[in-house]
Fold this sequence. Notes:
Layout: E1 4-9, E2 16-21, E3 27-30, H1 41-49, H2 57-61, E4 67-71, H3 84-93, E5 101-105, H4 115-122, H5 124-129, E6 131-134, E7 143-147, E8 153-156, H6 158-161, E9 165-171, E10 174-175, E11 179-180, H7 194-203, H8 221-232, E12 236-242, E13 248-254, H9 256-270, E14 272-275, H10 277-282, E15 285-289, H11 306-309, E16 314-318, H12 329-332, H13 336-345, E17 361-364, H14 370-376, E18 380-383, H15 386-393, E19 401-405, E20 412-415
Amino acid sequence: MGFVIKIATGAWNGDKYRVLNFPDNWNISVYESQWFDALDESHIRSAFAKPIGAKPIHQLAQGKKNAVIIVDDLSRPTPAYAVIPYILNDLSKGGIKEESISFVIGGGTHRPLNDEEIARKVGDSVVSKFSVYNHNVFSKNLENLGYMDDGTPMYINEIVMHSDLKIGVGGIIPHVSAGFGGGGKIIIPGVAGYDTIAYNHSKFKGRGRGILKEQGSEKDMRDNVEDAARFVGLDFMANITINSKRQITGIFAGDAIESYRQGAVFAKEIYDTIIPEEDIESSDIVIINAYPQDYDPAQMGKSVWPYDVFKNAQKIMVNTASDGINYHGLADKMDYESYLKMKNAETPTFTEREIQSKDDFILLFSNFPKADFYKRYPNGVMLENWDDLVKQLNKLYNDAKVAVIPYSPIQLPHIV
Length: 416
């Protein structure tokens, strides 16, 4: 037996480990970021007691009739359930009763979560005590707030806008267009209408994955979402960083923008992954693990940064795509029910392939809809079995040099 590694798969769906046994003659390098331990309760409690640029929640709650807590969905690895009890405790301390607190799943243009999925995100106790709503990007009941100064049409979830106190929970995860997730993204796209999200995505340039500041003088997508947070009156934000086990390594709570910016600086440090340039040039194969953002098939693009680093290597993506539904409202331009009707009426056709060259894109251990996969990747190969993959690759490589990126969505390449 050669080199053996374990990689995590199935975020929100068991969080299992897969064992990969490599041939004796393969040279394996695993590139990880620096390990950070999970925060203990005292650190989380302190983050809420001494927020950044804002009053504590219990002070903000005084005199308010009701509150809403907005969380991201399962396409993001944010363990919202771990911080919600602290928020609820502060709301109670501030005088807001349980029946006056609502939750909104701020999934933007993603599909609605079912009851079981909601419980995974916010916790069973929240589901049993509180009203939890999925945001509907195509709803006719969005609040029309007019336009921001930059021309953005502002259609926002009515539950959010009818709440006196607005609190968000989001993950500071590298994002190709906004630098990082978190902060104002809980508003756009989180709880915004289709026209608002489309304007944000089409009128403003992306910042770039892991970039902290705008590139140039023009307003970008991150600037736009921060303006939106101010515009709708997002009172408080809990921004979370995680490690490769989806444990909380940092919590930056307080003002939606100031807390995000401090958290993003920390995120850039902890997700930093050193990769020697000489290794890049000599690698024959790169194995890219999409965990911990491997629930929603439509999110696979969050993991592909190694394509641009290991340009000449064979790409293998490990992505369980547990959801198995490749829906994204902004791309499909239709609501989820219409999408399901369209898919149910289709007769999926595809031709499975074997690996033929180093230019083939390989997807492993995946529930990605096969017809969608082969349509999107004409040179793609979907495989369910690791041993089958190794057998096919051995036909192309004798002494393969392999790079492993073990949790790609929360890694930032640092080439030395």
